[in-house]
Amino acid sequence: MRSTMRVLLCCIAFVAVTTQTHAGDYEKAWEALHKNDKVHAYELFRKVLKSDPVHKQNAIAALILLESYDGRGDTFLNRYPSPFTVITDLNPYTYALWFTDGIFGAYGIKKGKQLDNLNTVITDNRFNGSLHAAAKYYKGLHHLIGMQLKESGNMYSQIGALGNWQFVGSFDNISGSGFNKDYGPLKEPNTGKGFTSYNNTHIDWFKPAVTDSAGWLFVGTLFPAANSVGYAQTFVNSPVDQDAILCLGGNGSLKAWLNDKLLIAQEDEIATELDKFNVRVHLKKGYNRVLVQIGFTNPGSNFIVRLTDDKYETLKGLTTTDKVETYPVDKTTDVPELLPHFAEAYFKKQVEKYPNDPIYAILLAKVYNRNQQYDKAKDALFKFFEKDPQDPLLAYQYLECLSSKYDRTDISALVEMLKQIDPENTLVLQGHESELEDEKKWNDALEVVNKLEAREGQSLWTISKKMYLHANLQHVDSMVTMLKKAYELYPDEYDVVSGMYAYNQKMVRDPAEAMRILEKYLAGHNNTKVQEQLAEDYFQQKEPEKGLAVLRNIIKTAPYELYVYSPIITHFFAAQQYDSAIHYLEIEHAISPYNSSPLGTIAACYLQKGDKEKALDYYKQALALYAGGTTYREKIRELQNKPDVFSYFPKMDYYAAINKDLKAPQDTAKSYYYIFDEENVVLYAEGASEQVTNTAIYINKKDAIDQWKEISIPYNSTYSDLTIIKAEVVKANGTKISAETYDNDIVFTRLEPGDVIYYNYKVANFGIGRLGREYWDKFYFQATVPTRLARYSLMVAAPLSINYVMKNADDVKPVESQHEDFHMYTWEIKNVPAFKDESYSPSLGDIGKVLHVSTVKSWDVIAEWYSDVTRQQSKENFDVLKTLQRIFPNGEEKKLSNDEKAKRIYNFIEQNISYSSVAFRQGAYIPQRASKTLATRLGDCKDVSTLFVSLARKVGLDANLVLVSTRRNGQQGMVLPSMEFNHCIARFKDGESYRYLELTDNQLPYHALPQNDISAQILNIPFNYDTKETISLLKPTDKYDVKLNRQTKIAVGATDLKVKTSMTVNGELASNMRGRFADKDEEEMRKALQQSAASHYKNPVTLDSFEVANLDNLEDSVTISTTYTVKNEVIGVGDINMIKPPFMDVVATSDVFNNEARQYPFEYWLYENTDRYTSEIELNLPAGKTFDQIPADVKATFKDMKYELTYHKVAQGKLIINRSFMTNIMDNIPASEVGQMKDFFNLIVNAEQKYISFK
Q: How many CA atoms lie within 13 A of 606 on its CB side?
């Protein structure tokens, strides 16, 4: 017994020493990597792999990743033992390393040891049911790509995914706004009642004629809208009451219900693996309803649902049906909790247990990356990457955590860093070669390829690159030699096969051999593009049966996808075999019944057959599903023998009107005038609109040529189609010269005075979503030049209704008429005089004759819609949380008031994010994600405002966006509901009041608002919409007054003045000063201040010194102090001397007024930018001198303005002059009171022109 114990103790001691030693090797391997010493890292990891049982599974994981990073992953399994013989914790490690070359590699046809690994996972009971199912899907795809369709179907059937689904969609989902909307399918499982789709059409539950049997249900084919929400339901029959796990995965934002109880709600639109979201459920005996909601923005969206036991193996005995069955509604109120994913839970535990081992963080990040949870991946790995950024493996793994959608800037920076720390890495060199190709440096690129081939041997990449580069170097023989060699070595590679086909088809003109190459490839590969090419070749070689066989074979590979039917439909249509084309089009329609395209093409087939009745029926069906189908609408009217809808508008002979003015131009001093400006609009019941514009302009003077030689027609290329019908110059002799056009740009050539430019264009609009169905417009009947005829006509289809307001032309009423189902309104004004040009007058939209039209019922509709489409963009993520830690280290936000928190966030944004101006037009309403703004450090108004809201709400502030139509657009620019806002700001609640923040000016103090915001039209956008909103003017209750204070001391000499002045400004004035001076060096500053001081005097000025404060920060105020000497400023007349006090800050001028009667209000805010001026001038006379004549004090008021100028003699030679002026820049001055303002200003001007004498 003693002997046995002694041996056992020795063994334990030996194992302990061995383990400690090899653990050191493992740690040293990472230390080597941290120092960018890959050679020693490889040696140490391989050593650990052979002799350290504790760390060997981590070592092989590190080697798999390292070999892949160095471009040798494809040979890993030939040089290392199978990972499944080394790894003990198989399930989490296999999941994390799934797509690495050491396990399976990327999806495709598998061979050799990767195929062995795949079969092992399918059959080995050490793997859980989730991995079994995933491996079966992988194997099924392997068979499908290899054209083994029966084997593929057999493997897919073993995944255990629920089948027999009904579907309904599409519903509105712009910017993810549909996720929490109740569109009705939850409460209505039966067909018959139906629902309203995203484009206002009636839809209902449907069963596709063919569905995918691969477990993953791709919904892009079923739901025609690219950005929508859809639903799917199936009824699961359970033989007994039993517990289960409902497992959900997919590509989109997902919700899942069982028996109408919500189990899973994942709002982020991400692509996950199967079984990502798992929850325990209880199946009732009999039928159970499973309902899935999926929101998506790309056609590749899909989902998969499985019901499993605790080991994620498929439950036995379940059946499904797409027929609606009676099911027990679950009315329990407990909130189900998601089960942690097995791989995520394992690696999170290991990270906590071994916080200094990078491999666990790397593998946890890879688990997250498999499910596009990039924020969590970054969070898992950031600590290690931040500590050792020179570690190439860590850097590369962190690179994989970055989203190509939101982290492009960081990706570029990290790639550049990898180039620096690991320039000889295979991937880095391949990237460098691509850059050389982009620069067309073909020889240099070839050198890189040869270098890699010499180092690592020939590969598909090297031989493919050499072919391409030799081709660009015109080395045809070398290229052909390489191509033949590549085909010999890699006959299964598509690019190589494609090249060999092109060589035989186009270079040696051997179509038979070219087809043989494709036939050989397709014998073992499923490739639609190659199949289409082979079919085309068969048809060209007069072998139609073979061609049709190939096209039918394409359909067999994926009969549930619409795209597989397109080639055969196109063939039959071109061959005028319309019945055959209709057969396949009807299958398309049966797969996706709410897709307009198959119906429209069926209509075209019947039209070609001469069956106008059926053609009309199908065109109507297609138009009902797609309001933007202009061709459908035109064909319907044509088949109904109805005239062009635009023929109902008022008739006009445009050329006759032009020729009339060419012969007798209007007598005007203006450089040009409008002969006619006409707009005809049709609003269709389906939600689309068309607009035709006709405009002719007489060029009266040469200076008008620069204004009109080039124009751009405004339209939204995303939701509109533009057709320029005519664009020409009409000469005085009647000759027409066509303009040059490109997209929406028109260039009128050979333009000269006496010509007329005429353009006529049509815009078809087809918006989507809730607001896309609405229409709004403004038409200006008045311009700054005369207009002979201004006309706006609107035809509104029943049952639509339109709201309209004609501003400043109450006497202009619409002429109404009825045409078919359209109600027409026509407003017309002839001989419209030019808008009177008055200084500082309101915008034309406020005082001109302007028509406003809108179908939007209330501003509430706009506010709710914008709240929905922007909420998702404010969502927090890794970058937002990291930024908050930077702004509020150690949880400091808990100690701060709301105002202090908002100020910190404001200052961070202003100091770190640059404003990038982007046109705020329809199609650019939705801000970018807050994280993207942080990454790029660029954003426009809505982007930086969204970033503020995101950060502010995370620290407890009630913050939201506010849409603004800046004041330059007028205070009545939007009379009816529309989205014609051009700016966005943020607001937050502080106590009982709200504070507004302008975030686009990086030099504006906190709380200050620019004048263009104050009294502008705004629409509040609540974050979570639950209140009524309407448009109003921004008049903050705690308005931040803009002040200018100047303190001046003047020492009067015999002839000169020594002046010391200090000016302090705040608000927008402080921003202006920072913008003017902040970037100047000392010499530039001196020069600028010298010029500024000299501008106040007629005599020479010399700057002696200056000081500045707060130019380089965001403090409330900026102070600039200067000392200078003014030569010969003292006037001498005998014994009397005179000086004029220098009021350097002008508060009033008289040159803005004339003697004509004022017609329009005076926009005082355009004239004045300061709320309050205060100035003090201290005059000190030379010794022995005393003041003689001192002007009297002046005090005057006008409306809310108050002016005071006082003189106080405090000593014989010392005088204090105080001036204050309180303005009101928020309100306009009515035209009737401008005369009083003129008198008020003249009083001020006269008061400040007076001299002071002394002797």
A: 21
Q: Tokens 């080039």 appear where?
A: 710
3-state secondary structure of 914: strand
Q: 696 and 657: one domain?
A: yes
Give the number of domains in the chain: 5
Residues 316 and 452 in one domain: no
Cβ(949)–Cβ(943) under 8 Å?
A: no
HEC string for 301-313: CEEEEEEECCCCC
pTM: 0.87
Tell me if 799 is assigned to some domain.
yes
CA distance linking residue 651 with residue 653, whole number of Å: 7
The CATH number linked to 706 is: 2.60.40.3140
Q: Do 1160 and 1022 fall into the same domain?
A: no
Name the residue range of residue 270's domain: 161-339
Please enumerate in sequence order all residues whose Cβ is within 8 A of that of 1082, keeping only pairs 6 or more positions apart, or say none.
Answer: none
Quick check: 10 pLDDT over 50? no
**1222: alpha, beta or left? (left if phi > 0; alpha if psi -120 to 50):** beta
Residue bearing tokens 């105080």:
1218
Q: Let me know if residue 803 belongs to a domain.
A: yes
Tell me, yes or no, whether 1150 and 1072 share the same domain: yes
> For residue 1237, which of 1204, 1205, 1200, 1206 has the smallest C-alpha distance?
1200
Token representation of residue 426? 């295979």
In a domain, 906, yes or no: yes
The distance of Cα 1152 from the centroid of its chain, to the nearest Å, equals 45
Model pLDDT for residues 412-430, shown as the tens digit of each residue: 889 999 999 999 999 899 9
Query: Please, what is the angle between helix 2-34 and helix 392-399, to 10°?
Result: 70
Q: Are residues 710 and 763 in the same domain?
A: yes
Q: Are residues 186 and 254 in the same domain?
A: yes
Distance CA 706, CA 708 (A): 6
- With vertex at residue 219, the alpha carbon angle to CA 213 and CA 224, rounded to the nearest 5 degrees, is 135
- Residue 920, pLDDT > 60, answer no
**DSSP string over 353-411:** H-TT-HHHHHHHHHHHHHTT-HHHHHHHHHHHHHH-TT-HHHHHHHHTTS-TTT-HHHH
Alpha carbon distance 1010, 350 (integer Å): 54
Residue with tokens 């923005």: 297
Tell me, yes or no, whether 248 and 297 share the same domain. Answer: yes
The answer to whether residue 984 sits within a structural domain is yes
Give the CA distances from residue 1100 to residues 1056, 1057, 1089, 1129, 1139, in Å, rounded to whole numbers and listed in that order. Answer: 10, 11, 14, 9, 15
Q: Indicate whether 841 and 951 sit together in one domain.
A: no
Give me the mean pLDDT over the 1101-1114 stretch.
96
Q: At what angle do helices 1067-1077 and 1082-1094 cross, to 10 degrees?
A: 120
CB 949 within 8 A of CB 1023: yes
Rounded to whole angstroms, how far apart are CA atoms 985 and 999?
A: 7
